[in-house]
Amino acid sequence: MSNFRPAEIRRAIRQELSAGPFDVLVIGGGIVGAGVARDAALRGLRVALCEQDDFAFGTSSRTSRLLHGGLRYLAQGRLGLVYEASREKRILHRIAPHLAQPLEFVFPTYRRSGWPRWQLAIGVTLYDLLCGGRNLGPSRVLSCEQVRQILPGLRTEGLTGAVAYYDALTQDARLVVDTLRSAHRAGAVLANYMKVLQAHRTADGWQAEVQDQQTGQTLEISARVIVHAAGPWAEQFPQSSVRLRRTKGVHLVLDRRRVEIRPDPAALSYAVVGACCSPPATNGGAPADARQPGLLPSADACPAVVLAEGSRIVFLIPWGDRLILGTTDTDYTGPNEAVCTQPEDVRYLLAVANQYFPDAHLTEADILADWAGIRPLIYTGRGGPSDISRAHWIRSPEPGWIDVAGGKLTTYRLMAEQVVDEVGRHLGRRLPPCRTAHLPLLESAEEARWSGILPPPVSAEAVQYFCQHEWTYHLDDLMLRRTGWHYYLPDPARTAQEAACWLAQQLGWTAQQQQAELAHYRETLPKPWAPSPGTTFEP
Ligand SMILES: Cc1cc2nc3c(=O)[nH]c(=O)nc-3n(C[C@H](O)[C@H](O)[C@H](O)COP(=O)(O)OP(=O)(O)OC[C@H]3O[C@@H](n4cnc5c(N)ncnc54)[C@H](O)[C@@H]3O)c2cc1C
What we know:
Blueprint (H helix, E strand, L loop, with lengths): L5 H14 L2 E6 L3 H12 L4 E4 L15 E2 L3 H5 L3 H17 L5 E10 L6 H14 L9 E3 L1 H7 L8 E11 L2 H14 L3 E3 L2 E9 L2 E8 L5 E11 L15 E12 L48 E6 L2 E8 L2 E5 L3 E2 L11 H14 L12 E10 L13 E7 L2 E6 L5 H16 L17 H6 L9 H10 L5 H8 L2 H4 L3 H16 L3 H12 L17
Parallel strand pairs: 1-2, 1-10, 2-7, 4-12, 10-18
Antiparallel strand pairs: 3-6, 4-6, 5-6, 8-9, 9-10, 11-14, 11-15, 11-16, 12-13, 13-14, 17-18
Helix pairs in contact: 2-7, 2-9, 11-14, 14-15
Bound molecules: flavin-adenine dinucleotide.
The site of flavin-adenine dinucleotide has 38 residues, from helix 2, strand 8 and strand 16.
């Protein structure tokens, strides 16, 4: 029996929240809320953050997991956005190298495709320049022969070659949790499963009514400023100035061997960092590879592949033993909680992949896992889903109420910095300068042991760690967001069974609670993607 007392910890959090007053109350524990909490706490403010579900439950655990400037935005002429995101990509690589693996992208080009190689060659050169000439690796142009060596199964008819450029792979939910842990160390009071029901103005700020989703208890939190960072839920409060265009994006996880991608012999390559593979050797904290702190050059790191589909692009991203195929971009009007992968999403993604790799014959039987997320884009009233700007929005419709929405995972740190500057103005205080671009996200080797792009090995020790240090209350929290076992392991249902026993020991569940957790978790497993009669996934 463990000495860990989650109910007592929870009670203490409720007491701290009620004790207030806080300088800032952040609504939403996605990447944006986490970034704001970290920055504000590091600048000496009293911070509380409430998340209605688990941390990273919303969009921030359902992304393409890329830290990128956005080559596609370059094609749309959004140079400012690319410059901003490219700078942030490098900053994240500096402060969180364990969650920013440089990754080469190979973009094959075809005759009459709308993405000519000469144009892309200029594009990727510009892309590197917008990184201040210091991208994570140099872009270049590839001949047909070079492309065939890397992608032996690629359709060659009409192939004119490829371009290659660099971005970084991350693990989105881990980025949120590690950011929150840093905020917590700096003094922020954080609560998942704590929903903000409503808020009203008082003489010296705001009073929010919140409800503990674990116990049903309600409490009041007072704060001088509210930062509203609710992602796709940003329209729920009457105070909010945000109008969203919500679009859905789906990703599928496949076995890595289903599409052959070989290492690019000319590329800088780095091993994916995570507890599954050997952790990077460090010497008293000194990075093993001085050029790329925390990352080891690897002989077998393979590039991601960019598949053009009209004016859109779809990625095939290597992730350890898996491949991530995504994403779609379609308008979404349903409830945020109900977003899920539909047969037409599966059909679209498999058809794009099969069009480029005809011998792979990918079918729905190849899908090991999937996720669907909602992009909280700022409503502009025009354009298709993929044309909407990914720029962010910070507005203060009422004194002491700050809305922050839109943006990208990659730019969250910058969004947070700008929001906290705004908080300082509302408080009428000169705040210390922002330090988040320089302070590492992790503080100890112990933290680094449990966080990375690949999931940690399955063990009772891991489960104990995530319960005692990372606010894990449910099986889903563990399987989907703390570890990613759900998306990566060949038989996640079996692991869930084992993990539920360990969680029961840590969290004091009854047999009935354990069964309820397992039943809830099973709903997240991929459904059989039964195609309608006569449907084919071939292009
Ligand atoms: C398919 C897809 C792929 C993407 N890929 C990338 C990518 O590769 N790279 C990139 O840079 N960006 C990417 N993005 C964009 C990026 O994911 C988002 O911009 C970012 O995650 C938004 O974070 P957020 O914190 O604003 O929202 P969220 O992560 O949704 O967080 C908002 C949180 O607020 C909580 N909340 C809502 N209401 C309340 C309440 N009343 N009380 C308490 N809590 C509340 C929600 O539960 C939620 O957890 C992608 C997005 C999608 C959908």
